[in-house]
Design goal:
The complex is a heterodimer of chains A (about 160) and B (about 150). With about 160 residues, chain A is mainly alpha-helical. Chain A folds into two domains: about 1-75, no CATH class; about 80-155, Arc Repressor Mutant, subunit A (Orthogonal Bundle). Chain A has helices at about 1-10, 15-35, 45-65, 70-75, 85, 90-100, 105-115, 120-130, 135-155. The N and C termini of chain A lie far apart (about 40 Å). In chain A, about 25% of the residues are buried. The model of chain B has no long low-confidence stretch (mean pLDDT about 85). Chain B is elongated, with a radius of gyration of 23 Å. Chain B has two domains: about 5-35, no CATH class; about 45-150, Immunoglobulin-like (Sandwich). Chain B has about 150 residues and is of the alpha+beta class. Chains A and B meet through helix 1, helix 2, helix 6, helix 7 and helix 9 of A and helix 1 and helix 2 of B.
C-alpha cells in the first residue's frame, strides 16, 4: 500500500522528504483510528483518502510558510524532470513523460491521483483539488485529451 | 464514462510514474518501523503471558497434572486466568471493573478453529473445546481488543 500512497502524495508536488512525512503521518493516523474503520475492504480507500488530505493540507501549510528564495527556486526545479528520470524509461514511457510535462499542474495532479486509485471518490477529490465535484469528470476527460494531443504532437516531431 | 482507451492511457501513466518516480527503497520498512514504534498500547492491547504451567515444575497436586494453566495480564490492569483440560477451556477475567456481561473471550487455534463466549457476572467462562497445535486468546471489552501471542500446547 505504501508505494500507492507515495504516488498519490507526490502528485501534490511535494519533494521526496515531505512526501515521506505525509505518508508516515497517514500510517500513524491509521494506527490510531483503525478500529473506527468497520469494513476491512475500506482500509485501502481510507489510507488513500487520508494521504490525499494530508498532502493537500501540507501544500496549504507550505504556501503559508512563504519560502525564502532558495526554497522557491528548488520548488520551481522539480526533480521529476531530470535527465536521470527519463533515462530509466523506455521510449514509449519517455514520450508519455514528455507529454505529461506539457500539462498544467492541475491536470498532472488529477491524472496521477486517478491513475493510482481503483475507484476514485469524486466528491472527496473535489474538496482536495479545489474543484467543483461536477467538474472532475469533464476535467479528467479534458486532461486526457490534452495528453493525447501532446503525445500526437511529440510523435510528429 | 470511462472508455477503454482512457483506461489504457491511465494504465500507461501508472506504469510510467512507477518507473520514473519510485518510492525510496526503504520506504515501506521505514513506515513499518514508525508504526511499530508508535504508542500502540491504547489502541491494541497485547495480552502478556506471565505464567505458564508448562514452564513450571510438574504440579504436585494430583488431578491438575494434565491441565495446562495460563495466566495473562493486560496493560490496562486486568488479567485472564485460563485452564485447558479434558475437552474444556475454562477461565476467569480478573481485576476488571466494567460490565462483565459485555466482555467476549475468543479462543483460536493456528489450524483455523475458533470459539467465542461471553463471561458470567463474576467473570468466569467455559468453552467446550479441545484445541490442538497452538492457541491464542482474544478478549474484547469496551472498545478495545486484546490478543495474546500464540501458545504451543
Amino acid at each position: 500500500m505504501t508505494p500507492v500512497l507515495w504516488h498519490v502524495v507526490r502528485a501534490y508536488g511535494h519533494d521526496r522528504s515531505s512526501a515521506e512525512d505525509v505518508i508516515q503521518a497517514t500510517w500513524l493516523g491509521f494506527v490510531r483510528l483503525h478500529r473506527t474503520i468497520a469494513d476491512p475492504q475500506a482500509v485501502a480507500s481510507w489510507l488513500i483518502t487520508s494521504a490525499r488530505r494530508g498532502a493537500a493540507a501540507h501544500t496549504k501549510a507550505a504556501r503559508r510558510a512563504a519560502p525564502v528564495e532558495d526554497e522557491a527556486l528548488a520548488a520551481a526545479l522539480p526533480d521529476e524532470e531530470s535527465a536521470e528520470t527519463v533515462a530509466v524509461l523506455d521510449d514509449e514511457a519517455a514520450r508519455l513523460w514528455g507529454a505529461v510535462a506539457t500539462l498544467d499542474d492541475r491536470c498532472r495532479r488529477l491524472l496521477r491521483v486517478i491513475a493510482f486509485m481503483d475507484r476514485p471518490d469524486y466528491h472527496a477529490l473535489s474538496q482536495d483539488l479545489d474543484m467543483p465535484v461536477g467538474s472532475i469528470g469533464p476535467t479528467r476527460a479534458r486532461c486526457l485529451a490534452k495528453l493525447r494531443t501532446a503525445l500526437t504532437r511529440g510523435g510528429e516531431r | 464514462m470511462t472508455t477503454d482507451d482512457d483506461t489504457q492511457l491511465l494504465d500507461a501513466l501508472r506504469d510510467m510514474w512507477r518507473r520514473a518516480d519510485p518510492p525510496p527503497p526503504g520506504l515501506t520498512a521505514t513506515m513499518i518501523a514508525a508504526v511499530v514504534s508508535a504508542d500502540l498500547d491504547q489502541e491494541w492491547e497485547l495480552l502478556v503471558l506471565v505464567r505458564d504451567s508448562a514452564q513450571e515444575p510438574a504440579a504436585q497436586v494430583r488431578g491438575l497434572a494434565t491441565a495446562r494453566m495460563l495466566y495473562f495480564t493486560a496493560a490496562e490492569g486486568w488479567s485472564l486466568d485460563a485452564e485447558i483440560d479434558g475437552g474444556q477451556v475454562r477461565g476467569q477475567l480478573l481485576d476488571f471493573d466494567g460490565d462483565m456481561g459485555s466482555v467476549e473471550v475468543t479462543v483460536e487455534t493456528t489450524d483455523g478453529q475458533s470459539w467465542t463466549t461471553s463471561l458470567d457476572e463474576v467473570g468466569f467462562f467455559a468453552i467446550e473445546a479441545e484445541p490442538t497445535g497452538s492457541l491464542r486468546f482474544t478478549v474484547r471489552l469496551g472498545g478495545s481488543v486484546s490478543s495474546s501471542v500464540w501458545v504451543a500446547l
